[in-house]
Write a structure and sequence with these properties.
α7 crosses α8 and α8 runs antiparallel to α9. This protein has 9 helices and no strands.
Length: 193
């Protein structure tokens, strides 16, 4: 396959994944049809089936795609950041993620039945926990602190907190999530020396 053809195929698949995520955020995974995705992506249903065997495969690949982007962006959230600027940098990453809607889509996808989707959801949960441990260690290091509990416990609480904020964005969009973020980290940093 020539390079331009491969790139065009990848671009179409990317558009389909982006459209699927947007449809899920708007309607919920249970209510999204392949026709909805086709219309949102500006492609035919046949093209969707060309890239993804069925809706289950599309959703499983979407979980993987969302995970890759989320974890990659989180991995760079504290790059070249030190001191108290680390909390602001972590907030900026989270605020951007909440605005992007990928977290909301991942949460909705976690409720979808099907072996392929659930396998992708479990892999995503593991990757998100690992990324959160790394960020927790980086944050404590930037602040000159040492956790008194395993960083993995703080990271698990952070993942659950982030998921709660993603849901809260739907339930109470007027709420100031930065205040919640600051209170959460004030409490977590209380578990450090």
């Amino acid at each position: 396959m020539t390079e331009p053809v491969a790139t065009a195929r990848g671009a179409a698949a990317g558009r389909i994944l982006e459209a699927t995520s947007a449809c899920i955020v708007q309607k919920g995974a249970a209510d999204v049809s392949l026709q909805d995705v086709a219309e949102a992506a500006g492609v035919s249903k046949a093209l969707i089936h060309y890239h993804f065997h069925d809706k289950g495969e599309l959703l499983a690949r979407l979980v993987e795609w969302l995970r890759a982007g989320l974890v990659a962006r989180q991995a760079t959230a504290l790059t070249d950041v030190s001191g108290s600027a680390a909390l602001d940098a972590l907030w900026q990453w989270l605020s951007d993620e909440l605005d992007r809607g990928d977290l909301r889509a991942l949460l909705d996808l976690s409720l979808v039945q099907g072996d392929a989707v659930q396998l992708a959801v479990r892999a995503t949960a593991t990757a998100r926990r690992e990324a959160a441990v790394t960020v927790t260690v980086q944050l404590c290091s930037a602040l000159g602190l040492r956790p008194r509990v395993p960083a993995a416990l703080i990271a698990d609480a952070f993942v659950a907190f982030v998921d709660g904020l993603a849901l809260d964005r739907v339930i109470a969009p007027e709420r100031n999530t930065r205040v919640s973020f600051d209170v959460f980290w004030l409490a977590m940093l209380g578990l450090t020396d």
